[in-house]
Specification:
The protein is α/β, with parallel strands linked by helices. It contains 12 helices and 5 strands. This is Lysophospholipase L1-like esterase.
Length: 277
């Protein structure tokens, strides 16, 4: 378009007998001013719409402020980015939800509408699937029982991702891994950590099969921490510090390389200084 404008002006100059060089310089200056007046897209902050969905870790059980677990921490961090004006979270966490229950809830119109408008969908799921298997086999815990349960879990996780993407193919999806809360009571059962590792490996592989997705691993954070990260009333859910560290891990993953931009379909470009080394 601009080349056509320059050609048109040159033609008019020739007709009028004016100096081509002088007039061309004038046109180029006008075009340069026009370019400078339109700042790069990443300099214009935008609202980031996030749907948080899943189990008690999304609901925020164990959060003493009852403000949504990891959400307020992650919200503050996201809003510190120059590309984001406001991070708007909608929380659909329900304590005790397994993958089969989440699949049913995804059919609710209100949730559909929220996902349709979202830039990002963050999911916490899987812990209660493990818990169900754990309870059903507590008298005779064997890895085979969990491996069998993982087959159905994998199918349901695929359906969850596919359903979300059918509602909004442009929304990024972030799946948070599970951790081992059973070690407090059953520290002598070494296989439990291996079960969690395999469960997370499966979740990471499944979500990695889809575009605009990311997996955030948190198991090692809980396993290797010298500080207590669990809620003292049940030693199962994260406490305030646990949720804060989860948010820190999520924020680090989202701001690495071009992750947030890739997840949101090139809507939120980060400055180089905002990307962790």
């Amino acid at each position: 378009m601009r080349k056509a404008m320059i050609s048109l002006f040159t033609f008019l100059i020739l007709l009028s007998g004016c100096s081509v060089d002088n007039m061309t310089q004038h046109v180029m200056k006008e075009l340069e001013l026009d370019i400078k007046s339109d700042p790069p897209e990443n300099f214009i902050p935008k609202d980031l719409k996030v749907v948080s969905i899943g189990d008690s870790l999304t609901q925020g059980v164990g959060d003493s402020t009852k403000s949504g677990g990891y959400i307020p921490y992650l919200q503050t961090q996201l809003e510190s980015l120059k590309a984001i004006k406001e991070a708007k979270f909608t929380n659909y966490g329900v304590r005790g939800n397994r993958t089969d229950q989440l699949l049913k809830r995804l059919n609710k119109e209100k949730i559909k509408e929220s996902i349709d408008e979202a830039d990002l969908v963050i999911i916490t799921i899987g812990g209660n699937d493990v818990m169900k298997t754990f309870k059903e086999n507590i008298s005779n815990l064997k890895i085979q029982a969990f491996e069998s349960a993982m087959v159905d879990y994998e199918k349901r996780l695929h359906h969850i991702i596919q359903k979300i993407q059918s509602y909004n193919p442009n929304a990024g999806i972030v799946l948070i891994g599970i951790y081992n809360p059973f070690s407090t009571w059953f520290s002598d059962i070494k296989e439990l950590n291996q079960i969690i590792v395999e469960w997370n490996t499966l979740s990471s592989r499944v979500i990695g099969e889809y575009n605009q997705t990311e997996f955030v691993e948190v198991q090692n954070m809980f396993l290797n921490s010298e500080r207590n990260l669990l809620f003292e009333e049940d030693y199962f859910h994260p406490n305030d510090l646990g949720y804060e560290l989860m948010a820190n891990r999520m924020f680090k993953i989202l701001t690495q390389r071009e992750t947030l931009n890739e997840l949101t379909n090139n809507q939120f470009l980060l400055k180089e200084e905002e990307q962790p080394s």
